[in-house]
Amino acid sequence: MSLVLNEEQIFLKDSAKKFASEKTPTTHFREVRDSEIENCYDEKIWQEMVSLGWTGILVPEEYGGSNFGVAGISSILEELGRTLTPSPLFSTAVVGVSLIKHAKEEIKKEILSKVVQEGLRLCFAIEESNHHDPLKISCKAEKDGDNFKISGEKSFVIDGGFADKIVIACRTSGEEGNKEGLSLFILDANSEGLAIMPTKMVDSRNAANMKFENVTVSANMLIGEEDNAFDLINSVLDISRAAISAEMLGSALQAYEITLDYLKEREQFGSKIGSFQALQHRAAIMFSELELCKSCVLESITAFDEGSNDSERLASLSKAKVGEVFHLVSNESVQMHGGIGVTDEYDIGLYLKRARVAEQIFGNSDFHKNRYAELTGY
Amino acid sequence: MENLDQFRKDTKAWLEENCPPEMRKPMGPGDVVWGGRNCKFPHPDAKLWLERMGEKGWTCPTWPKEYGGGGLSFDENKILQEELMAIKARPALSSFGIWMLGPALLEFASEEQKKKYIPEIVKGEIRWCQGYSEPGSGSDLASLKTKAEDKGDHFVVNGQKVWTSYADDCDMIFTLVRTGPQEPKHDGISFLLIDMDQPGVTTKPIKLISGKSPFCETFFDNAVVPKENLVSDLNKGWDVAKRLLQHERNMIAGMGLGGAGSAKKKKDQAITSGMATMAKTYAGEEDGKLANSSLRQKIASFDINSHAFSLTMRRASEESKSSNSGPSPASSMFKYYGSESNKLRYELMLEAMGTKALGWEGEGFGPAELAITREWLRTKANSIEGGTSEVQLNIIAKRVLDLPQ
């Protein structure tokens, strides 16, 4: 695995940096948040991302994508994380595309080309409880001729409120907690029997709760093998965990840099507050922790493209470490800003809100520490 | 790439022929070869191994050939280290000359000084110790008082140093002395190389909480030092001192390595955590998991941080490969994190081993268990020596983050 980016990845990162600073600074996030737009992102910005080719970065060239890899899309997400850019890029171009890649040929061809060309929006309905657990799935899909009928409930579906297609993980056999018996299906968001309740989260992005009552789906819409989707789910989750860690790293770095600037500017007791040792040491500790996060993210996002056999553990390493450090940085940043840190006018509180939601996506630090231990043989 | 492949082939062959079998066995605590005029070798093969490696310059693989070093590139050295690791070869030589003084001399010393001192370090002929701290100058190192007076062709040195590692076994001491008593404190310090084999220099070991005495007090009583032993200009010693401290910090930071992360996963080979394996032995396991879930969580956190830290050390080395810049103020980050991490490692071992880690001597405890107890106490100095953790955080805040004074 590489701990430095290649030229292609640096190019993507730089263009995302330019995009974020020109088109989606945090004022853009505020505009969307405070507007009447229900889906929590700006359609025009989304289409610009599509025309830059960002939705096709994980899509193979034969389906119109660029196949620039997990490190490529993650580098973009890191820069977008710096300005808290709201968009369905993560749920569509990382999670959704990685799942659809394993669909039946003609379905794959149709959906991926729409994602690349039109920005068709995807989401992944997997969670069923308040804490991430890919085995805790009881949502059922029962065979009915050439179709399946899906019943059950899903929660915390990222960008699920306004997606066009939903990939759902359900049980075709076995019981909650079993690795065997899991299957993946692609559904239209307007399927009969499906109720979608968008939930506006504390970070002003949308997730959704979904209720399925005998929703009919053709067996053709199965992704991977029936009853045998666990490994596929896991590998897509790991790519997603590494990528969201990159976005979180970008947000954490920005929150830290904003705070560092404030320490150099704010005066109390006749001195810059950054001259106080009580604050200096905490800033230095954050610096050190963020340096460790950078290495974890680089190692994990390049692991997939380079075919590492340790990518599972590296994804957990990254999500556990970055989650913990973003948590620390978001709290310290608010505290070091003092009173204005808890005002809506200052951006720093936005990072705190985003941190807590992002920490939960596909497993928080505790989940991944536990998984890291399991994968390391204890 | 082709040249590197050839280099690997040649290196493998040379090591196969020249590394004595005895030197491929695991080391005990008394097996470190420190070099010096009175060098003690644990085995005749250790002497042979040092002579062969020293002759090739591979005790200091990346130092220039003209001073006896190996002259290897970054990539060649990486290969050499991999091949040494592959045959489990012991280090031929360990010394403060290699880790600390040598790199500073290569940067600051005169041509004559380099020609004289560097080859001695490479071959392990002279054992060096460090004369920095004084009883009244710990974290505030620049307030040091040991003075050197100009007597024409030589200096006369008077004063006391403390925490001089292994000074009672060393031949020479690199010393910070005050030569400009009227100057501001940082601008009146010089860097002197002092031969300890003279009546004006005496040492006295300090007994530590671990029961061991790796450090000494060193006294200078009209010690005589020839003028040519001044490194860099008079009163410019602080620049050398700071640079050397960065090398020292990198060395101490390296102690923070280890744990599950430092091993790269090989094909078909499960990764294990040394700490977790030990904890299973002493604290029990259930279904392959550590039985004590709170301890398991702590070890997982430790392993994750240790893994992240070793990746960061590797990243820094890959980044510096192109710029060739040597250690930077960021080495304070490594010193801080590495020493804190090493302290935590031993605290966790104590927690995992329970009362088995609390023996002092005699029956009832294995030698490895007793060694861990002593080493746990030794690690408490990691975040003090080479600049305390608090001093490192100050340096990061000021030199890296550019926070106001």
Mean pLDDT of chain B: 91
- Our measurement of the CA-to-CA distance between the termini of chain B, rounded to an integer number of angstroms, reads 49 Å
Identify the quaternary structure here: heterodimer
Percentage of β-strand residues of chain A: 15-25%
Q: What string gives the helices and strands of chain A in order?
A: HHHHHHEEEEEEEEHEEHHHH
Which pair has the most extensive contact? A-B, 42 and 51 residues
Instruction: Tell me what portion of residues of chain B adopts beta-strand conformation.
Output: 5-15%
Structural class of chain B: alpha+beta
CATH domain class name of the largest domain in chain B: Mainly Alpha
- CA radius of gyration of chain B is 22 Å
User: Strand sequence of the main sheet of chain B, in spatial order?
Assistant: 1-4-5-8
Shape of chain A: globular
Helix residue percentage of chain A: 40-55%
Helical content of chain B (DSSP H or I, runs of 4+) = 40-55%
Strands side by side in the biggest sheet of chain A:
1-4-5-8
Mind explaining what this structure looks like?
The complex is a heterodimer of chains A (378) and B (405). Chain A is of the alpha+beta class and 378 residues long. Chain A has helices at residues 7-22, 26-34, 43-51, 69-82, 89-100, 105-118, 230-265, 277-305, 311-337, 348-360, 365-375; strands at residues 122-125, 140-144, 147-154, 165-171, 182-188, 194-200, 206-218, 222-223, 267-268, 271-272. Chain A folds into three domains: 7-119, Butyryl-Coa Dehydrogenase, subunit A, domain 1 (Orthogonal Bundle); 124-228, Butyryl-CoA Dehydrogenase, subunit A, domain 2, CATH 2.40.110.10; 231-375, Butyryl-CoA Dehydrogenase, subunit A, domain 3 (Up-down Bundle). Chain A contains eleven helices and ten strands. In chain A, the strands form three sheets. In chain A, strands 1-4-5-8 form a four-stranded mixed beta sheet, with helices on one face. A four-stranded antiparallel beta sheet of chain A has the order 2-3-7-6, with no helix packed on it. A two-stranded antiparallel ribbon of chain A has the order 9-10. In chain A, strand 9 and strand 10 form a beta hairpin. In chain A, helix 4 (69-82) runs parallel beside helix 7 (230-265) and helix 9 packs antiparallel against helix 10 (348-360). Chain B folds into three domains: 2-94, Orthogonal Bundle (Butyryl-Coa Dehydrogenase, subunit A, domain 1), CATH 1.10.540; 128-240, Butyryl-CoA Dehydrogenase, subunit A, domain 2; 257-400, Butyryl-CoA Dehydrogenase, subunit A, domain 3 (Up-down Bundle). Chain B has eleven helices and ten strands. Chain B has helices at residues 2-18, 44-56, 74-86, 96-108, 111-123, 237-253, 274-283, 293-323, 331-353, 367-379, 389-400; strands at residues 128-131, 147-150, 154-165, 172-178, 189-195, 201-206, 215-226, 230-231, 285-286, 289-290. Chain B is globular, with a radius of gyration of 22 Å. Residues 259-263 of chain B have low confidence and may be disordered. Classes of the chains: A alpha+beta (378), B alpha+beta (405). At the A-B interface, helix 7, strand 10, helix 8, helix 9 and helix 11 of A face helix 7, strand 10, helix 8, helix 9 and helix 11 of B.
